Amino acid sequence: MSERVIPLVDQRSAASAAARHGLPAAVPAQPIAANGLLGDQLGRPLHDLRISVTDRCNFRCSYCMPKEVFDKDYPYLPHSSLLTFEEITRTARLFVAHGVRKIRLTGGEPLLRKNIEVLIEQLAALRTPDGAPLDITLTTNGSLLARKARALKAAGLQRVTVSLDGLDDTVFRSMNDVDFPVAEVLEGIAAAREAGLGQANGKATGGLKINMVVKRGTNDHEILPMARHFRGTGTVLRFIEFMDVGATNGWRMDEVLPSADVVKRIHAELPLVQLEPSAPGETAERWGYADAHGRHDVAAGEIGVISSVTQAFCRDCNRARLSTEGQLYLCLFASQGHDLRTLIRGGASDEDIASAIGLIWQGRNDRYSELRGSMPADTSPGARRIEMSYIGG
Ligand code: SAM
Ligand code: SF4
Ligand code: SF4
Q1: What values do phi and psi take at 150, rounded to 5?
Q2: Which SS3 state, helix, strand or coil, does residue 19 take?
């Protein structure tokens, strides 16, 4: 096995440099109307906003926050850098005016942010221009879910996605790299179900999702046990290809197990039929468990595969990401954000901030996954890609 060598000092200064080097967000001379009709350079609408509420985490998944880099000396953001709940809600409201209908809270580990349910309450009170509530969800490692599921639901959270990379306790402990037992995450998932977070729009299924990042040779033997475990529970299990996001996870193509192989392996034991996408811009390809006649067995449920490496879905990418300190990122693989916090804290009006957001989105032409492999690596100072724990997954 080849060794992973990570130059620690480089990575740490890159992280703080990334925070410093945000592009100033300009207010255009002519206001850009927030009428939901915004399109980027490739005609993509703005629909989905991911908000990172902390850059800290209690896990050290090697594909995201490897221990060697994210140690006690890592320069995490000071509390004063973080957007407050009021700042996040105000910004989210302006995104909603531009067409955002779905908000996902993420991190780092979002449940580590103190009083996160207060933020959820504020976001749940937002309405679209035609008076509808937003689709609000959260991605968590599940470690604190058993304790918090009820409060999250009561605050207005509708759905939750729990990351779980295997059922085998030894595999799971080594994937999270802090020796966290799988049983506690499974308790968290059960608590989420009991609290009603497993329901979407009143339907019994679809609200609770499980994300499994698959690393070939590390946890790919957990694919089938995971599929068997969640089949028929109303919980959708989604397999994510290990991505080259950030600059510290020692990514190698030979550790990526293509989604097509995941489907093949499951299909060999539990036959699958392909399903239609549930929404435009949906990142997961859906596969339903088949009945004896080869039709979708709704009671058995479905799985999803997210082929971020082998099958780019940039064409439909309608997601913006707001970092913990208020930088707007247009792509998971971006190296620079657009600094909205300076505007927010500098007394800019709602109209000015909305116009600045409009201008930034109109200039967007990111499509990293489509271009991956065909681009020379950008090694200029400050070009290092931002970490997933900072920008949010
Ligand atoms: N801490 C929370 C969690 O783990 O669910 C939320 C933040 S985490 C960055 C969001 C998602 O990104 C998780 O589902 C995680 O598994 C996924 N992720 C992180 N690094 C990844 C990588 N290199 N490739 C693919 N998915 C990754
Ligand atoms: Fe933490 Fe989530 Fe990253 Fe794992 S994937 S280190 S749980 S932020
Ligand atoms: Fe969207 Fe960037 Fe991912 Fe393409 S690579 S799907 S543009 S986040």
Answers
A1: -60, -45
A2: helix
User: SS3 for 163?
Assistant: strand
Expressed as residue numbers, the domain containing 228 is: 33-391
Q: Which ligand is nearest to the CA of 335?
A: 3
> 314 in a domain, yes or no?
yes
Residue 371 backbone phi and psi in degrees, to 5: -95, -10
Residue 198 pLDDT level (bands cut at 50, 70, 90): confident
> Which residue among 57, 64, 109 has the greatest number of ligand 1 atoms within 8 angstroms of its CB, and so is best to mutate?
64
For residue 6, tell me if it sits in a domain. no
**Ligand number with the minimum distance to the CA of 306:** 1
Q: How many CA atoms lie within 13 A of 51 on its CB side?
A: 28
Domain of 161, CATH number, reads 3.20.20.70
User: Is 69 domain-assigned?
Assistant: yes
Give the lowest-confidence range in 205-214, 289-298, 331-340. 205-214
Ligand 2 close to Cβ of residue 304 (< 6 A): no
pLDDT in tens, 295-309: 999 999 999 999 989
